[in-house]
Amino acid sequence: MPVDILILGSGTIVQQLANEGLIDEYLFIMTPVVAGEGKPLFKHVKQFGLTLLETKAFRSGNVLLHYELKK
């Protein structure tokens, strides 16, 4: 039985679940800032494909990107 879980700001848990193929959908909020360094979200994760389902732009300049795991 599938269970809905929302994870905010925990790259370690996301990496573990992604490597096991347990995440069906990804929602990314992109903020228009260029940072020279940062913590990668998908460090040590096996490569997989995503299909873009939806985008939404906000007046702030942020963009919401909604993806599902490529089938």
UniProtKB/TrEMBL annotation:
SUPFAM superfamilies: Dihydrofolate reductase-like (SSF53597). It comes from Paenibacillus solisilvae. It comes from the Bacteria. This is Dihydrofolate reductase family protein. It holds the Pfam family RibD_C. Residues 4-63 form the Bacterial bifunctional deaminase-reductase C-terminal domain. InterPro entries: DHFR-like_dom_sf, RibDG_C.
